[in-house]
Structure formats: structure tokens, C-alpha cells
Write a structure and sequence with these properties.
Layout: E1 9-10, H1 18-23, H2 31-37, H3 42-48, E2 62-64, H4 78-81, H5 95-108, E3 110-113, H6 125-134, E4 138-143, H7 150-157, E5 162-168, H8 174-181, H9 186-198, E6 204-209, H10 221-227, E7 232-236, H11 255-267, E8 271-274, H12 277-285, H13 287-295, E9 303-304, H14 308-311, E10 314-315, E11 320-322, E12 334-337, H15 343-347, H16 350-361, H17 367-370, E13 377-378, H18 381-384, E14 387-391, E15 401-410, E16 421-425, E17 445-448, E18 458-466, E19 481-490, E20 494-495, E21 501-506, H19 513-518
């Protein structure tokens, strides 16, 4: 989903932009087959079990912190302030812990290499990333850019399932940059220059944390970004106050600087993305509404409108599993340890279930969630938009395209507008599917609801799926029965938890991105 030319645009979930799969260039025979086959066996069996909102399927992605060591002292970082558990005992993830993490990544299928340390400081970071990549795990990397040597950039360029790299540049003014990160700017710009020589430019984003310290200097970045052949710039708001922020929150006096930044992006044909656009808008335009929506504690039956307990946990360098990256400061926030249990046992344990129940029931939340300033207060999305799968297609027969029907009940409180709810591919989200046909909306969107659906009403999604008989190279499909995963999604909002389903088929061994694009008509995705 995206509007080019400098409009403020939210990121639609984790990996939900079409650029994600477009940049995931599959270059080796069998790469997609590894993605699909890796989700067979135990994972398919897991999804066959009765998943509920309290015991959901595996998350779509996870953050993994390979290290809590960093070579910068950023004023806005919890690591600088010592406010995370792993920062109190700084070090690298051991090979023993990595051996516990890798099976979880293979099952989940997608990882963001990001923590409160600099990932590339880990002496085996590239080896671990390469191992996950060989198992078909999609990955994203966030880096401060200081370790982007020629050798490292070349290694990143060889990762076939690396879909995104964000390089943090908080200002082009060397003095402003140093005041924030306590290190010189020039090595970071040099590293970024090397990165664009080795990694597909569509995969690279420059990012800044926007705050009072740097807002006046950000409008110089879009031109530099464009000069590198890049097209996306992301600004991240100050999410929480674990670091030394010096009152860095923005206010009405930032409006003019934001207007200049938006104009600079448009003039350089750079897409401006805001991680929490509604929060930034209220932050600078309506202080009272901002406090009531984001900084006040939950009240009067309201809760945080957060989906992370269903979608996106955090694993620190010690193997501890947390609700999210912002709930990592206390022993009480550890919801399980990979030392003691497999990931799915943790994901479904009583502590995770209790947190999910509290969100849905608008009961007292954990302290980190009560104090969170990322997610707004309101009715939880899973009450607003919710679906019940009444019937789904059975296993596909090979050799022919088949018209199948998915029957769904609107179990939420909001009416679905015609075309608002779509069937999307998951595991990982928004990947191109080997079951696609010309009848799909796009290679990762099968169909949408044909008419409005009021709460309590049912609707059907008519889907044409391919039962393939030949691989790209003309050979026969693999014999392993795999589960192709789909889920309902409201593009630009969120995926509907509890609506995931699978269709069994015999997976082709080789479906490459070039093969898909060559057989797909021109046009834009439906978002």
C-alpha cells in the first residue's frame, strides 16, 4: 500500500507492503520450496489444531536481539539508560542460545534482526543470518551503519531472503548527529554508500528517530537519499521514555519543520513513511487529544489497540521471550525462556494467554503496556474486526485450476465495506503463492468480499487456485503435502487474528519471483 511522492504514509504491519515481496528476489532453485516445505510437518499440524484468540497460530514475525553491545550512546535508547534486562548484563547471544532460536525462526518464517544493541557487532552475526537464510527465513535488518564494511555489505547482498535493511541517520548535520549518537556521521554515510553497491536499492530505507533534538535538520536528508538512488525515508516517533530523551517530544513548534520535510521528500521523489502517523499528527496538532489517546493510562473499558501479543514477540540475546521490544525492562516481563521450553509452548503458555485476555477484556494491563505511548486507547481491533471461518476449501487436486469457496461470518462490531476484507498470503505475510492464478487480485491477494457484510452476516470469497502439475523447469511437483497458509486482512489496518486457514497441496519445488512476474499482468496491487 503506498502513495509515492512524499505523502505521510503508515507502514501497514510487518512486511505488508508489496515492496517487501518485490524485493525478495528468489535466485536459487528451490528457494521458495524451502519456505513452503519449512512450514509443513509440525507447523501444519499446529495450524490444524483449534487455534483461538488466546492460543493463536505462530506469530508472523519476531524480533531477535543478537547482542546487547553497541558502539553508540544514543540519547533516546534504553540501552544507554540501562533499562533493558539484557543491557544489565551486556554481551552476545551464545551459540547454545542460537541453537534454540533457529528452530523458532524456521517455524515462524520471518525475523527482524534488531534489538537494543548493534546487530553487526556480534562476531557471528553474518553466519547466523546466513544460516536462517538458507532455511528460507525472510529477514529484515536495522543497523546504525557503523559496521557496513565492504565485506559485510557483500555478505548482506548474498542473502537471498533479506527483504529490508534500515540504516539509521538521525541528521545530515554532523554536530546534530554527534549530539544524539555520540559518534561521527561520516563513517555511517560511507557505509550507506557501500550498502547500495551490494544490496538491491528497493530493499534499503534510511530512518530517523524524530525529536526536538533533530527535527529542524531533517529536511536535508531526502536529497541525499535520492542521490543514492533510494526512494524511501522513514521517521520513527519517540516510542517510550526509557532513554534520556531530554524532553525530546515534539510539539506545535515542529509543524513548520515537518512541512519542510514533507516538501523536501516530494521534491526529491522520496516516499516519506511514519511509523505511527496518527500519534505524530496529534503530537504536533492537538496536545489534549494526544494525551487522552496515547499517554493516559487505559480507563473506562478502553484498552491499548495493540496486536503485538498475537503477531510480533521479542527474543533477547539470552533467549528470553517478551511480549514485544518495549516490554523488556523487568524480570516480570519475561514470558518464557528458550532455555526451558520450545517457542510454541511459550507462545501458548498461561502468561501469554493472560496478557491476551487482558487486552480483549479491557482489564488491567501489564505496566509496560499501560505506560506504552505507541498504541492508542480504544476498543480493541479484534472486537472491531473479527472473522469466523465457517467452511474452507479442502485439499487441492494436482493438474487443474480449481474454483473454491471460503465462507466467513463477520464476528466483529464493524461492517465490512465491499472489497475491504481480502484473503492474503501468510507464512510469511504477503509472499507470492504457488497457488496463484490470473483470477487473483494480485500475487498475494486472492479475493475480496464482493458486497458489504454487517456484523453477524456471512459472506463467501470465491477463489481460483492452481493445482500445478509442473515446476518452472518442467519437472514434476514435489510429493510432500504442504499447507498453503492464508488469512483475512484489512489492508492499511491489520490482519485479522483467528482467521488463518490452510489449504493442502503438493508443493512445486521451484516457483521463482521472475517466473511469477513474467506470467502476471501489469498493474498495481489492490490495497
Amino acid at each position: 500500500m503506498g502513495v509515492r511522492g512524499g505523502g505521510l504514509e503508515p507502514e501497514a504491519g510487518y512486511g505488508s507492503t508489496v515492496e517487501l515481496w518485490l524485493s525478495n528476489a528468489v535466485r536459487s532453485t528451490g528457494a521458495v520450496a524451502r519456505q513452503v516445505a519449512g512450514l509443513c510437518a509440525a507447523t501444519v499440524q499446529q495450524r490444524r489444531s483449534r487455534n483461538t484468540l488466546l492460543k493463536p497460530p505462530p506469530p508472523f514475525c519476531t524480533n531477535v536481539e543478537l547482542t546487547s553491545m553497541c558502539n553508540q550512546k544514543c540519547v533516546m535508547c534504553p540501552l544507554t539508560a540501562g533499562n533493558t534486562l539484557s543491557s544489565q548484563n551486556r554481551g552476545h547471544m551464545t551459540s547454545k542460545i542460537w541453537a534454540k532460536v533457529l528452530p523458532a525462526l524456521r517455524m515462524i518464517g520471518q525475523v527482524q534482526w534488531i534489538g537494543y544493541g548493534e546487530t553487526l557487532l556480534h562476531p557471528w552475526a553474518l553466519e547466523y543470518m546466513g544460516e536462517a537464510d538458507r532455511h528460507g527465513v525472510w529477514s529484515s535488518l536495522a543497523t546504525n551503519g557503523t559496521r557496513l564494511t565492504e565485506q559485510t555489505c557483500a555478505a548482506l547482498g548474498r542473502l537471498q531472503h533479506l527483504v529490508h535493511v534500515t540504516v539509521s541517520v538521525d541528521s545530515l548535520d554532523p554536530n546534530v548527529y554527534r549530539s544524539i549518537r555520540k559518534t561521527p556521521l561520516a563513517p555511517v554515510l560511507d557505509g550507506l554508500q557501500r550498502l547500495v553497491q551490494h544490496v538491491d536499492k528497493r530493499k534499503i530505507t534510511v530512518g530517523s528517530v524524530i525529536m526536538a533534538d533533530n527535527v529542524e535538520s531533517l529536511d536535508g536528508l531526502p536529497r541525499h537519499i535520492a542521490s543514492l538512488g533510494l526512494s524511501k525515508y522513514q521517521i520513527n516517533v519517540l516510542h517510550e521514555h526509557k532513554g534520556k530523551h531530554f524532553g525530546g517530544e515534539l510539539g506545535p513548534d515542529a509543524r513548520a519543520a515537518l512541512a519542510r520535510l514533507k516538501f523536501a521528500c516530494a521534491a526529491s521523489a522520496v516516499q516519506l513513511v511514519v511509523d505511527v502517523p496518527g500519534r505524530l499528527d496529534l503530537n504536533v496538532n492537538d496536545a489534549a487529544a494526544y494525551r487522552a489517546t496515547y499517554t493516559d493510562a487505559p480507563r473506562d473499558g478502553l484498552t491499548r489497540r495493540c496486536l503485538l501479543p498475537w503477531e510480533f514477540p521479542f527474543i533477547d540475546k539470552d533467549g528470553n521471550v517478551f511480549l514485544c521490544s518495549n516490554a523488556t525492562g523487568r524480570d516480570s516481563e519475561v514470558l518464557g525462556s528458550l532455555h526451558d521450553a520450545a517457542f510454541m509452548d511459550i507462545w501458548h503458555n498461561e502468561r501469554f494467554q493472560d496478557v491476551r485476555r487482558r487486552f480483549l477484556a479491557a482489564e488491567e494491563l501489564p505496566e509496560a503496556c499501560r505506560n506504552c505511548t505507541i498504541q492508542p486507547l480504544g476498543l480493541h481491533q479484534l472486537h472491531e474486526y473479527r472473522a469466523e471461518i465457517l467452511s474452507q476449501p479442502a485439499a487441492l487436486s494436482p493438474g487443474v485450476e480449481q474454483d473454491v469457496v471460503l465462507t466467513v461470518r463477520n464476528a466483529g462490531r464493524a461492517m465490512w465495506r465491499a472489497g475491504e476484507v481480502a484473503v492474503g498470503t501468510v507464512r510469511p505475510q504477503d509472499r507470492a503463492s504457488p497457488l496463484h492464478t490470473q483470477g487473483w487480485l494480485w500475487v498475494n491477494r486472492v479475493a475480496a468480499n464482493p458486497q458489504p457484510v454487517r456484523p453477524g452476516e456471512t459472506t463467501t470469497f470465491s477463489m481460483r487456485l492452481a493445482g500445478r502439475t509442473l515446476n518452472e523447469d518442467g519437472s514434476a511437483p514435489g510429493q510432500k503435502v504442504c499447507g498453503e497458509a492464508f488469512q483475512l486482512v484489512i489492508d492499511g489496518k491489520h490482519w485479522m487474528a483467528g482467521s488463518e486457514f490452510t489449504i493442502e497441496h503438493r508443493s512445486p519445488r521451484n516457483v521463482g519471483l521472475d517466473w511469477l512476474l513474467a506470467r502476471w499482468p501489469s498493474g498495481q496491487p489492490v490495497t
